[in-house]
Amino acid sequence: MKRFLWKKTTTFLFILIGGTLPLIYYTQFVGVSSEFDRNKFTRFFSPSFYKDDFRQYIYRTDRKIDRRAFETYSFSVEISNQIGAYRLISDTRDPKCRDIDYVLKPRRTVSVIITFYNEARSALLRTIVTVLKRTPLEYLEEIILVDDCSYDASDGEDLKFLPYVKLIRNQRREGLIRSRNKGAETAYGTYLLFLDSHCEVNEGWLEPLLDRALKHPTIAVSPVIDSIDPDTLKYKASYPFLKGGFDWNLRFKWIPISFEERKVRQEDILSFTAPAFSAGTFMISRKWFFQLGGFDSSLEIWGGESLEMSIKHWLCGGQIEVVPCSRIGHVFRKSYPYSFPDGVYFTYLRNSKRIAESWFDEYKHFFYSMKPAARDISVEPNDKVNILKKDLQCRPFSWYLATVFSELKLPNEDHIAFGQVKCGTKCLGFGVKDQTVKLQDCSFEDNSQWFLHSTTGKLSTNTGACLNLNGNQVILEYCKDSKNQMWIRRGGKLVHEATGLCLDNTLLDAIVGTECRPGAPSQLFSFSVELQK
Ligand code: UD2
Ligand code: MN
Q1: Which one, 75, 108, 114, 292, has least CB within 10 Å?
Q2: How many A from CA of 252 to the centre of ligand 2?
Q3: What class of enzyme is it (predicted)?
Q4: Hey, what domains does the chain have and what are their CATH numbers?
């Protein structure tokens, strides 16, 4: 209703100032001002914009890229151009959502941040136009476009005449992660909302997001991402009851909410919590975003940043919710239309390692056991993360696993304990060079202090070697199905099954097998994580 009235008013204004139109057109083309300018609205909402004006933008060519080829964008640009700046799409919300009258007080504004790199002009324009047309403008602070150094600077420059639009252009390609940070740094809105450059926001998308976000300053919200087919550009509703998550490879994963959970919620239109943002489209308070340090700017080009943000957000006091009444369409492409300077595999692996090293505590070894190649990649230590953890009193990763993401099972179900193995105040470790097992000062940094105890009794290192006894000397050898490699837990002791000897810290930091002695502290070992079986 409100939007209808608004349209009426602008149409009226349009007729009223018809005589001065040529002058207004002129000033807009030269783009004299990026300040708020009511004239922009007149032009933007005029029928000629949708009929012809946008075509001048879409069909401007440059020689560096083929603007008609499917491969240039990994979706059908021809169909996208035919659709133009705007189209009607099906309202995919649960019909009950339409009846909700959101009373959004206090008023808050949103800065929409769209990063793009050589995007199809029609798709980029449509993303912006859908935001302008389907958002109550009193909630919209601005639309910040971050051009990540696309080949053709006019991709972004030509859009500055649109209302609310501001443009930043990177002098070199920074990747979407640093670009989003840059966009956030210039934002004024109370909330930041990140969008890809090939989206179409649907009817009533923003109000339900704001409604939830207003409940608490650290609730970050995510819409349901509908899919736009890359071949046909058909808009399709997605199943709304999916949460964002990931596996130990740190690959994003959708997880359906359980039947029980749906029953408890009673109402399908209520929001639900999720371990991670449903991909990279979410809204977060600007203040809280910067308290969290923004996205980790060491992450390169593409990948992982939404997981990094999700994990630290939860661990440091936030909550993520999926809001089923909010819908945004996104073109899910089957391949990357752009290059990765270091290759996509390596880039993603390095980003993942950085996240695991920063946030996974001793669980990082599960990541390494899935991705052994990551061990050899060097990533700079994340000094900021320790300050952040202290300042915000962030919880350990084990809390996240137990409380937020119980669906993330340990990769190998057949173990009973893992992590650091402590005897007194020291930790079991092995010398990488001499391969002797001894006690060392405990350190999370040290990969050689991580052990796994399997249900069959094998006690192995993170490099996959198994502990055995030779006489009473502890040795490391290839794991095999041998009784000699079996250790049983008995009252805090680790008993070698074949000989009945106990693991013992006899002298200084040496570790050997000795006769088991009741209550001997030097024979008591505890794992940092003991699983209940
Ligand atoms: C998914 C997320 C995306 C981001 C990414 C992982 C959705 C709908 N998409 O991406 O937001 O979280 O996973 O990082 O949630 N871009 C640049 N510079 C570059 C590369 C890309 O600005 O160097 C832009 C690109 O034009 C696009 C956005 O970043 O607008 C996301 O890239 P994408 O669409 O290729 O990624 P997608 O959909 O696989
Ligand atoms: Mn995308």
Answers
A1: 108
A2: 14
A3: transferase
A4: 47-61+69-331 (3.90.550.10), 415-530 (2.80.10.50)
